[in-house]
Amino acid sequence: MSWYAWLSFVSVYFVAVATPGPGVAAVIAQALSRGAVGAPAFIAGFVMGDLIWFTAASLGLSALAQTAHTAFLLVRYVGAAYLLWMAYKLWTKAPRVPADAGPDFANQRPHKLFVTSLTLTLGNPKPMLFFVALLPTVVPLETLRLPGYLAIGAAIAVVMPSIMGFYVLAASRARVFFQSPRALKALNRGSGTMMAAAALAVAAR
Predict the structure, then answer these.
(1) DSSP secondary-structure letter at 19?
(2) Distance from CA of residue 8 to its chain's centroid?
(3) Cβ pair 20, 187 in contact under 8 A
(4) pTM of the full predicted structure?
(5) Pairwise CA distance, residues 105 & 25, whole Å
(6) Contact at 8 Å (CB) between 35 and 137?
(7) Residue 163 confidence (pLDDT) above 50
(8) What's the pLDDT score for residue 128?
(9) How many CA atoms lie within 13 A of 77 on its CB side?
(10) Which listed residue, 65, 98, 138, 164, has the most CB atoms within 10 A of its CB?
(11) Mean pLDDT for the stretch of residues 33-52
């Protein structure tokens, strides 16, 4: 895998993780209720969940890329359409304060927080569908070897905690911002625009 392919993956994955969704909402809710307490364990569950989705999706796509080119292209375009749908939802949905939507984190211990976020990630189709949409556009799956898998895994292990850690810090220090419908609307629309751009890039490649 080339450096260009790896950097392309990192760039689009960064946008995907930063885009508001169930994971971001849960992290903000956790930070609003507990501050930074328990955040490392909670974030670790998201990292593990994405690594599991990446492994499952990449192995399946690798086999598909080698055996069915037309089906492989169909998967890519379906993934791009899904990203556009996500962008539309971000632009049109009403702002929702994460603290009102998330589970009760106040009395959970680290291992329970880890299991909570892992379960949330594994039960969320967004990570799986995103990896299906992204990987064919930036990674030569038919020639991907162990070093490539490790490089992508390392990127996930760095990008996810960095972005989620930022949300924890921001929510802990600026609780008023994350409870403001106007601010959440601006965040949703900015993320929706970036997601739409990613979808167009996926379809055009």
Answers:
(1) S
(2) 15
(3) yes
(4) 0.67
(5) 13
(6) no
(7) yes
(8) 72
(9) 7
(10) 164
(11) 85
Q: What is the mean pLDDT of residues 23-50?
A: 81
How much is the pLDDT for 106? 47
The separation between CA 117 and the C-alpha centre of its own chain, rounded to angstroms, equals 13
Give me 102's structure tokens.
């998330």
Q: Could you tell me if 153 and 144 are in contact, meaning their C-beta atoms sit under 8 angstroms apart?
A: no
Angle at 162 between CA 104 and CA 131, to 5 degrees: 85
The pLDDT of 23-42, averaged and rounded, is 77
Token pair of 27 as six digits: 């992290």
Scored b (16 or more CB within 10 A) or e, 63-81 reads ebbeeeeeebeebbeebbe
Rounded Cα gap, residues 69 and 87, in angstroms = 27
Q: Are 160 and 43 in contact (CB under 8 A)?
A: yes
Amino acid at 197: A
Query: What Rg value do the Cα atoms of the chain yield, rounded?
Result: 17
Q: Which two tokens stand for residue 142?
A: 């038919």
How much is the pLDDT for 113? 81
pLDDT digits 0-9 by tens, 91-140: 787 766 554 444 444 456 778 888 888 887 877 667 777 777 667 677 77
pLDDT, the chain, mean: 75
Buried b / exposed e across 90-117, counting CB within 10 Å, b at 16+? bbeeebebbbeebeebeebeeeebbebb
Structure tokens at 11: 């760039």
